What does this fold into?
Amino acid sequence: MAMARAGSGWGPRARALVRRLRSGDEIAHLVTFLFAGSILLIVGLLLNELWVNSALARHKFGWSFFFTRVWDPVFEQFGALPFIFGTLVTSALALLIAVPVGLGAAIFLAELAPPRISDTLAFLLDLLAAVPSVIYGLIGIFTVVPLLREYVEPFLKATLGFLPLFQGPAYGVGFLAAGVLLAVMIVPFIISVSREVLLAVPREQREAALALGATRWEATWKVVVPFARAGIFGSIFLALARALGETMAVTMVIGNAPQIAASLFAPGYSIAAVIANEFTEATGDLYLHALVELGLVLFLLTFVLNGLARLLILLTARRGGAHA
Amino acid sequence: MRKILSVLLAGVLLFPLCLAGADALLVNGAGATFPYPIYSKWFDEYHKKFPDIQINYQSIGSGGGIRQVLAGTVDFGATDGPMTDEQLSQAKTKILHFPTVLGAAVPTYNIPGVTGELNFTPEALAGIFLGKITKWSDPAIAGANRGVNLPAADIVVIHRSDGSGTTYIWTDYLCKVSEEWKTRVGKGASPNWPVGLGGKGNEGVTGLVKQTPNSIGYVELIYAVQNNLPYGRVRNSSGTFVKADLASVTAAAAGAAKTMPDDFRVSITDPPGKSAYPIASFTWLLIPSEFQDAKKREVLVGFLRWMLTEGQKHAAPLAYAPLPKEVVDKEMKALAQIR
It folds into this structure.
């Protein structure tokens, strides 16, 4: 960029450039620009690899790849629908559980708890966020799944069994187990980031609300939280991205059956899980390309969901008006 | 401070060079995970015997092994299922199969109240995994287990979710005993299962079976032996119910040895022989028939010769069934094809 600006008329411009280079600004600009540019480069390379290495599957199945329910490596019939379904259902379930819990905890920690408790809990949260997913998966297999099978699923069946969501045999493993486990895994992200954002809301905002006669809860819920909305949404997207891409823990509890079922008790499958499970033993070229195309689908899915989420922020910010 | 740092950095950067500097001849291979314990034992023993030879093996899976040996990025590959004709036709130099040891898959189950070993007929196994036999008390199962009080509970089928050689053996067997399985599901490392839940790895299947009442799954024989899992007998082609162990698995290979094709690509599931366990298979090394580098060729031929003789003694302690003598003799002759 510096070069382009120095392009017309040497002499004084060049000297100015040298001066600026010496002061370090231009170098810092260039270096940071390159680092930022590397993000684009990585995304570009990733897309290119996924696109090139899925060519066979794309040509053979076309758009029907998205709507086909069969995944049969033996007879080389590949469709992504059960995996897309599984990924979306488990992630949605995880958000459904994790967002209220995470947001509530973040508000308590940022607004209501004494600083010492808040800081200690924040430290523990960061520990939780660093637990490897295979550990969560093992906890899932040995604790969550038996609990679901023995107590939670029979209870849900007895009380809400008239809904198709809670019917069928209770294996323990399935969409529900994966959703619950994912929720546990992403809650720390939501709490940790939301707490920081809430803490960053200027004091004046709270004081102004209180001065107008708002109660402490009203000040928090009607002023502070809307003010921090963009950051809170950011924490939820981060959590969603993790849920969409989570592999190990999900495959250990989801049951790994590529099917679409109305019941949350039924076993399912997610995109990331099937790639991890089948990639190493995928012998045929078409099979391999179909798996890479699943990667492409996951990429697009994340892209679209993130785009929608950003749109949501824009819309609510415009309507809300309180947003800085 | 800065000096110390730069010395440390240099040390870290140069460390790999020191390791490689021993002038060892390096041969690289990749492939199947199932025989990894015995392969790493062999390569280690061979390195102790010939310190200037180092054979590296990465257990990246059979699919990866086949792809890498086709692409020529490794000197040899390894697989649990033989390469297809189509895959072989993609090879630049002809690729040879060499059986190394034998593995088997066994049915393991968890039925409350049943502690003894169950007998399974081929029809019962195919019916269960096709989802046609849904209760433990079904006559197809109960008929072979007189005196065992089987519950009228629903069977929960557990299979491997990750692509695996064990699944290949299991489905290869079901293809041979059930026409419906052959046309509907077929054989492969990860088929489209008609019913059931998937567990990741032997440990995943075992975990699900142990936890889920009235379930049945299948695991590698080695895994079942090492973890003391209960597993059932399977009826072989001569009508005997056989429990899988090293002797019955080797017997399966001996039964098939007479009809062994010259390229060793043979399935030995459901073999003839009274004492043969029917759900067993070879695992293979994939060796290119031509080497540019004469030294590497010598190393690999030398290793194969050692593996077929002395190396076989290491198999049994690790619970792999050694090759029968007929197969070893045939492989010894085939070594001449490597040029």
Notes: Chain A has a mean pLDDT of 89. DSSP finds 15 helices and two strands in chain A. The CA atoms of residues 227 and 324 of chain A lie 7 Å apart. Residues 2-52 of chain A form one domain.
